[in-house]
Design a protein that fits this description.
Helix content: over 70%
Number of helices: 20
Radius of gyration: 21 Å
Shape: globular
Low-confidence stretches: 12-22
Strand content: under 5%
CATH architecture: Up-down Bundle
Largest sheet: none
CATH class: Mainly Alpha
Length: about 400
């Protein structure tokens, strides 16, 4: 092989390797449950949404990272200076609520997986894993890194099983390609809202600005680092898409409902048989628990900065508020009633209500020449970011109307 080709191969692996690891850790129970329900209920007809979400998330992630590299102050700190404390506090609260919603999903995902394997109810596992995560966050972060590597291996194994199942099931390419043509099937709104809520995470994109600043990156490092971030998003969307295709090829033809972890595990039976339940449930637990601490620190850290308590994500105010995220998420998982998958989809969709404000403020800040100078958004970034803002706003309005109707009835 020529040296130039080897160099290109090494460069590709340098992107795909860390990106795949990032995607495997970020992939949560909300994404897995929503993708499974999407394929089982609507086949391939919503695959186009995955491409749109990938475009939106890549754009906002790049915006957040660019702000962190250019600005000498935190994003919520800049908002407090430009628009007042009220707005930074409001955005901090929104971020906190979104993280609490995701945390409830993590509790449900971990609890549902372990209930399927052990028979013990979800609430037992929700309390147990929250206590463990709190102890690790406050006392033993190094221990969590060891556990995280084990969880990563389980998630990667589950992803490999999905890929193998797709190859074995052999979905028709024409049907898959047809799903890339935008259509909105009747009754698909809750799943669309959940997919936007769990995969197009504006709060996570906003958090990128803090990560960049804590790493001390400037523009040179940003241009290198953002490559891996966007590659991670592409891999994450690819994995979610594979789950949709697997569910559409295996579960939908059987007409099965997807309400529990065991139901979702049916996707892997063509490849793994009776072992499918064990691998899927272990992978779902790993996907949930791997983001217990990171997700909580995002919500706690952003609220701490919004309140003016400090911008360091590892500071004590951030950790204490992260603990509050864990406890509220656990309580939400215990209080809400219904089948686990329905609850996961409902909670992920509900977080969309708090996203439009965060998206709009990010657009305003990235177009502020006083802060960004020559590094303000270009016209392409503005078109894509405004389209993303419009999408989550429409879904949020739909959610509000549905809530009003349900209250009225």
């Amino acid at each position: 092989m020529p040296n130039s080709e080897r160099a290109k191969g090494r460069k590709l692996l340098s992107i795909i390797g860390p990106a795949f690891i990032t995607a495997a850790v970020v992939l949560g129970p909300g994404s897995i449950s929503t993708a499974s329900r999407m394929g089982a209920s609507f086949g391939y007809s919503l695959l186009w949404l995955m491409l749109l979400v990938c475009l939106f998330m890549s754009c906002y992630t790049a915006m957040g990272a660019r702000f962190g590299a250019v600005s000498g102050e935190s994003l919520l700190g800049a908002i407090r200076r430009k628009y007042g404390t009220w707005l930074s506090v409001l955005l901090g609260i929104c971020s906190f609520v979104v993280s609490a919603g995701f945390q409830a999903g993590n509790n449900l995902g971990a609890g549902t997986a372990m209930e399927s394997l052990t028979g013990l109810p979800v609430w037992v596992w929700a309390v147990f894993f929250t206590v463990v995560a709190l102890a690790i966050m406050l006392l033993a972060r190094r221990t969590y890194r060891v556990i995280e590597k084990m969880m990563l291996a389980l998630v990667v194994l589950m992803i490999a099983a999905f890929l193998g199942t797709v190859l074995k099931a052999g979905p028709k390419l024409a049907d898959v390609l047809k799903g890339l043509s935008p259509t909105i099937p009747g009754g698909s709104f809750p799943v669309i809202a959940a997919m936007l809520g769990t995969t197009f995470s504006v709060v996570a994109a906003l958090y990128q600005s803090y990560l960049v600043q804590e790493k001390g990156w400037r523009l040179a490092e940003y241009r290198t680092g953002i490559r891996d971030s966007i590659a991670g998003i592409i891999v994450l969307i690819f994995i979610s898409t594979i789950i949709v295709i697997t569910s559409a090829a295996v579960i939908k033809p059987k007409g099965l409902a997807v309400n529990t972890a065991a139901d979702m595990a049916n996707q892997l039976e063509p490849l793994l048989g009776a072992s499918a339940k064990w691998l899927f449930c272990c992978g779902l637990w790993a996907a949930a628990f791997s983001s217990f601490i990171v997700n909580s620190l995002i919500g706690g850290g952003l609220l701490a900065d919004g309140l003016g308590l400090g911008r360091k994500m590892g500071g004590m105010p951030s950790k204490l508020l992260a603990g509050a995220v864990m406890l509220i998420g656990m309580t939400m998982a215990l209080v809400f009633k219904g089948t686990p998958v329905n609850l996961l989809i409902f909670l992920q969709g509900l977080t969309v209500l708090f996203v439009p404000g965060c998206a709009l403020v990010m657009i305003l800040m990235l177009n502020d020449r006083e802060i960004m100078g020559e590094h303000v958004n270009g016209w392409v970034a503005n078109i894509v970011s405004l389209a993303g803002f419009a999408a989550v706003s429409l879904v949020a309005c739909g959610k509000v109307l549905n809530l009003i109707k349900s209250i009225g009835s």
